[in-house]
Structure formats: C-alpha cells, structure tokens
Amino acid sequence: MFPLVVFYACYFWLVPAYLAKRRILTFLALLLVLLNAITVAGYLSIEVANDLYAGNPIHLFYRLDFHLSGLLAMTVAAIFGIAFRSVFGWYEAMQTRSRLEKEKLQSELLLLKAQVNPHFLFNTLNTIDYLIYADQPKASESLIKLSSLLRYVIYETVGDQVPLQTEIEQMRAYVDLQRLRYGDLSSGICTVADDPSGKMVAPMLFMPFIENAFKHTDEAGIRKGMAIGFFVGAQSLEFTCKNHISLKDDRHGGGFGLENVRRRLQMQYPHRHELAIDQSAEVFSVTLKLTLQ
Fold first, then answer.
1. How far apart are alpha carbons 124 and 51 in whole angstroms?
2. Residue 11 DSSP code
C-alpha cells in the first residue's frame, strides 16, 4: 500500500507541479522528504500492526537497515511514478502541439482562401464596371454570372476539397464572364482531356492563374489566343494556362495571387505538386501537376 502512495504522489503531484515546471531542486527536496516520511510511516505502521495482532504491548523499535530496505522499495515506486507521468505528459504535450499546429494551419488556410476571394471579386467587378458604360445588357448578364460565381465561392469552397467537375465549371463561367467584355475568344480555352468526374481538388486553386492570364495582357494579346486546359489521369491532374503578355504591362510575375497559390499548394499538396512558370518575350505559361488522393 505504501509504495502505491509514493507512486500516486509522484504521478499526480510532484511531477506535474514541480518537475514538469522545471523546479528541479524543489522537486528533489520534496521527493526526498516524501520517500523518507512514507518509509518511516510504513515501518512504524507495520510494527504497530504486528504488536496488535500478536497481543503484545506496542513498542517502537527502529532499525536503520529496515529503513534502507523500505526506502529502496519506495524509491522503485517513485521511479515508476515519475516515469509513467513523464511519458504520459510527453505524449499529452505532443498531442496538444499537434492539435495546435493543425488548428494554426487550418486558420492560415482559411485566411488564404479569404484572400483569394476578394482578389477574384475585385477583378470581376472591374469587368462589370467596364460593361456598365460599354454595354448595359451585357453588364446585367455579367451580374447574373457573378452572383452564380459568388454563390460558389461563399457556400461551396468552405471545405478542403470540391469536385473537380464543379471547379472546371466555375472556370468556364469566369471565362464566359470575360467573354462578355472581349467578345468571342479563342476556342482553345478551358479544354478538358479525360473524364474529371469523381475527382476532388482544393477549391479556387486554378482561378488566380486564369485571372492573371486576363490581367497581364490586353485585348490584342487575348485575340492572339489563350489556352487553358485540364488533363485528368487516374490519380493525377495537369493544369495548363498560356497567354500572350501585354508589352505595356511589366508586372509579369503574378504578385500576390501566385504567391498565395504557392503557399496553399505547400499546405494542401505537400510533396504532391509541381508548379512550373515560364515566360518568354511574349508568352506567359503555367503548368501545375497534382497527385490526387
């Protein structure tokens, strides 16, 4: 019974209250007092119990060798209590650290998504602003398409993944919205190779590339042709986007939007993505390869 007292005292009191807080000297002093006090109390209790059981008068006779023997047993119990509590505390700390890191990543990912959406909205509203003066019927049509896109952004992109088919449909809707401004565009826009049904991807992952394809060119560049494609494999996806660069625009790097995508890829597709960005004198191209799960 007395070794159990030492075990639980170390497990529930000394380790969490002192050792875990790195109060080493206080811990050692209290441990020494505890071991000796329980050893003395245990030895005297046994002596009294034996005398009462035998019907003899109670007498207290204390021997050093008995104390050392009892102290050894208490020390073993203390070692087990300290070891069990330390291992349990280490595991609990690891679980807490892992949970906090996961919550931090989720919070950061939500922030990144929140940063994508205003960027997309800002570019789209610029298009509508242009159409209000140039073609009011088309402006009305663009508002309807925008409401559909915003519904997708607000209600369907809150999770970690969305159906690839849905994501592609929204890319096509965005291109259609741009078509209202620029008229008929090249037939090579938003082509899909193989069946995307059943595949899941991170939401709003491709939109910044398509936004930049329109943002960093002019009408003449768009007329030269723009190619956006999705090539779907059994466990892979390759996205390509190529556009002509406006000679009047020197912001070819993509800026905030592409840095945002790079960060999201690191978080959502670690070691499962390849992003290649190439730029020549006239053409800017992006190739993103994903390994799907």
1. 94
2. I
Residues 6+ apart with CB under 8 A from 199: 163, 164, 165, 232, 237, 292
Superfamily for the 135-291 domain:
Histidine kinase-like ATPase, C-terminal domain (3.30.565.10)
Task: For residue 280, give the DSSP letter.
Answer: -
What one-character DSSP code corresponds to residue 189? T
- Smallest CA-to-CA distance from 277 within 185, 190, 213 is with 213
Place of tokens 């002596």: 47
Q: Are 203 and 189 in contact (CB under 8 A)?
A: no
Contacts of 241 (CB under 8 A, 6+ apart): 206, 209, 210, 213, 227, 228, 229, 285, 286
In angstroms, rounded to a whole number, what is the distance separating the alpha carbons of residues 99 and 253?
36
User: Kind of pairing, strands 236-244 and 226-232?
Assistant: antiparallel
- Confidence bin at 185 (pLDDT 50/70/90): low
Check whether 250 has a pLDDT greater than 60.
no
- 70 vs 58, 73, 76, 248, CA distance in Å? 21, 5, 10, 89
Contact status, residue 56 vs residue 20, Cβ threshold 8 Å? no
- Please tell me the pTM assigned to this model: 0.59
Q: Residue 58: what pLDDT?
A: 59
Cα–Cα dist 26/28, whole Å? 6
Quick check: 219 and 246 in contact, CB under 8 A?
Answer: no
